Amino acid sequence: MKIGIVAGEASGDLLGSHLIAALRKHQPDIQFIGIAGPKMIGEGATSLFAIEQLSVRGYIEVIRHLPNLLALRKNLLKQLLAEKIDLFIGVDAPDFNFWLEKKLKNRGIVTIHYVSPSIWAWRKGRVNAIKKAVTHILALFPFEPALYEQAEIPVTYVGHPLADLLPLHPNVLEVRENLKLKPTQTVITLLPGSRQSEVAHHADLFIRTAHLINLEFLKEGKSDAIFLVPLITRETRTIFDKALNQFLLTLDENSVSPPITVMFGHAHEAMEASDFVIVASGTATLEAALLKKPMIITYRMSNLSWQILKRMRLQPYVGLPNILAERFVVPELIQDDATPEKISEATIRLMANKSELEMIKIAFTNIHQQLKQNTSEKAAQVILDYLKH
Questions:
Q1: Which domain holds residue 139?
Q2: Taking the model in full, what pTM does it have?
């Protein structure tokens, strides 16, 4: 049995790896081939192309890379057909995968799309294109199935695997001990994104924000604060280190530099150990919520990409925790509002509001319980049912 599978970034790689492991518990001889990240490869998937080639975000950025992406997609389709796959799983990456899925479906191959695209947030008209491309949708969020049922697209709510993996009550002291952090010190984790383009947009913003917060902490007598910056690739770390060095050069000899510690990986541990998170909008916001961490959600992109995107938005929220709660549980400071002054001010204000922090924790606990569905096993069962036929 041979399954084609494509993930387009780190979050898809994580989802795909859990799904592969769940499927192999039932059918150990299944082969997986397509585009995979390190976690999926670790579970035995064969990657025909590097996952980084798909990790492009923003309209202008995609346009710049479009010729290469189109050529890669055609080449991949040819190879998947040559491999005579029995079924295809597109893990997120909708703009790349839907074209592929439509071509494969037209050849009689079952196509499963794992992670509903954000039709509830923008580009709602995509549902008609999805119907032509997809045999079955695996939805991570409870409000999504109704949208597909209306369009008569087979759909199953499977929950989110992070909700199964993460504890309802994180052990902060244990993680701090492992990271050699003091139990009482103030820890803020900065998550500027997983893509190189995201870190390029956010690095200086996050560094200057940390500097302003630290200056305020020093006024309050907090001298042991630390800012953790976990980055998953050498390339993103190089971008961040360069921005940090450039900022430090702007300080005079009497200025205090922000206590920033750059980490290679360990984003989960950094979040779990933290008192607060400042995070670029994306899957990391959901992980922070499942760890019950108060946060500021922010994001910057090219101005042209933002002008296009904001005209297509269907709701006021961009962060997953707020979307799931259907209200602004935590602040969002996007594009022009994403300034060091505004983010630092919002962070300090929220960290001082104990009643608000408790309300955030309750809201995030409710989200966690709702998403905890034994996701990978549910998704695997849907796929296995198709393989039987």
A1: 2-159+373-388
A2: 0.80
Could you give the 3-state DSSP secondary structure of residue 335? helix
Residue 364 has pLDDT above 90, yes or no: yes
Q: How many Å apart are CA 163 and CA 11, to the nearest integer?
A: 14
**Same domain, yes or no: 325 and 276:** yes
CA 339/CA 323 separation, integer angstroms = 23
Strand partners, 36: 50
Q: Compute the distance between CA of residue 73 and CA of residue 60 in angstroms, rounded to an integer.
A: 19
- The amino acid at residue 320 is L
Q: Strand 187-191's sheet: what is its strand order?
A: 260-264, 226-231, 187-191, 276-280, 295-299, 332-334
- pLDDT at residue number 58: 46
The total number of structural domains in the chain stands at 2
Predicted confidence band of residue 93 (pLDDT cuts 50, 70, 90): confident
Task: Please check whether residues 141 and 189 belong to one and the same domain.
Answer: no
| Total residue count of the chain as it appears in this document | 389
pLDDT digits (tens, 9 = 90+) for 240-260: 999 999 999 999 988 899 999
Same domain, 230 and 327: yes
CATH number where 276 lies: 3.40.50.2000
pLDDT at 60: 44
Instruction: Return the structure tokens found at 101.
Output: 């899925």
Residue labelled with tokens 């949208």? 147
327 shares its domain with 249:
yes
Core vs surface per residue 298-334: b (16+ CB within 10 A) or e: bbbbeeebbeebeeeeeeebbbbbbbbbeeebbbbbb
Joined tokens for residue 179: 């990271």
- Eight-state DSSP code of residue 53: G
